[in-house]
Amino acid sequence: MPAPPAHAEGPSMSTAPTPEAPAGPHGAAARRGPFRAGERVQLTDEKGRMNTVTLTPGGAFHTHKGFLQHDSLIGATEGTILENTTGQLYQALRPLLSDFVLSMPRGAAVVYPKDAGQIVTMADIYPGARVVEAGVGSGALSISLLRAVGDDGYLHSFERREEFADIARGNVETIFGGPHPAWRITLGDFQEQVLAQEEPGSVDRVVLDMLAPWECLDAVATVLAPGGVWISYVATVTQLSRTAEAIRADGRFTEPEGWESMVRGWHLEGLAVRPDHRMVAHTGFLLTARRLAEGATGFTPKRRPSKTGFSEEDLNAWTPQAVGEREVSDKRLRRVARDAASTIQRGSLPAEEAQARRDAIADGGTVE
Ligand SMILES: C[S@@+](CC[C@H](N)C(=O)[O-])C[C@H]1O[C@@H](n2cnc3c(N)ncnc32)[C@H](O)[C@@H]1O
Predict the structure, then answer these.
(1) Which residue puts its alpha carbon closest to atom 23 of ligand 1?
(2) Which domains does the chain have, with CATH numbers?
(3) What are the pocket residues of ligand 1 if the criterion is a CB atom closer than 6 Å to any ligand atom?
(4) Closest ligand 1 atom to the C-alpha of 193?
(5) Which segments constitute the tRNA (adenine(58)-N(1))-methyltransferase catalytic subunit TRM61 C-terminal domain (predicted)?
(6) What is the pTM of this model?
């Protein structure tokens, strides 16, 4: 069954102007103006230590050096510097997406902001695009994709583990202040579910972040529109090579292109201007290819590697442990899912609706 755009039937958030929140793209109003009760604020002390608090009337942020009343932040201008009961100073700012993603509840490794930026730009994710994604994991990449497709776009995310879907939903709803009108999640294996739910040739972009993207090759080729972009994020060189060779051998795509990005921060102090001593040296590799028109065959490279085949034995070796993925217990995932659910801002989603949506995911159904 083809899936209608989620915003046509899913629960939608009102964007009607209110005295506090002017109309605009989804979630934008909540990121402007004075701080409001219920929102998250990042407090940075003079040593650069950061803490994120959710503003509650009557609440307080305690450290071993005194406390700061939440009421002194509610109604204050963003960027204000406040003093706690012992004179400690704090800068108060709304967390940026990159801050949120690195501190939100997570069950699996998230796509780092530097890679999410590459994915959005290099896969050309544009407002109004129809995008499918798997797996959802903690929802970090889903958030960037939703921002890029916008309220009138369409992001259909597939995830095989329901605890991850639950965590991702909590994180997405926290940052957007409620359900996003362009988003739906389906539980199950991408390669089966996407074929059941998307029309052949109807998808503009496919974004995969999973262990074995080559297993999805036929499904991607089926749903992707001619000229559509497939981008995969993989952690290891062996996955990169396996995916690239599978795409090349299939013939329905352009030549795959692979790369990685490295971001190195710089220390900036007087004349001591130099690269930071520490950096996140490796996150993952990116690989893109574009769907050719039906019946067209990809150019074969003039020089082919001598050994591109993979035996059945190789295939069985692709386990999370073999590629160095951390095994996460079901118990831990359930706890993180509970944490993620409890961070959804209640003010923007009625409690009974939040519960109904959690129940729907727990029942293994599609949540829109
Ligand atoms: C590394 S996590 C994704 C992280 C996510 N992109 C983020 O930024 O938070 C990989 C996810 O893919 C899911 N997965 C793996 N193979 C899948 C498949 N064939 N279909 C659906 N989900 C799959 C796993 O359960 C896991 O949650």
Answers:
(1) 135
(2) 36-93 (3.10.330.20), 99-316 (3.40.50.150)
(3) 108-111, 134-135, 137-141, 158-161, 164, 189-191, 209-211
(4) 20
(5) 102-266
(6) 0.81
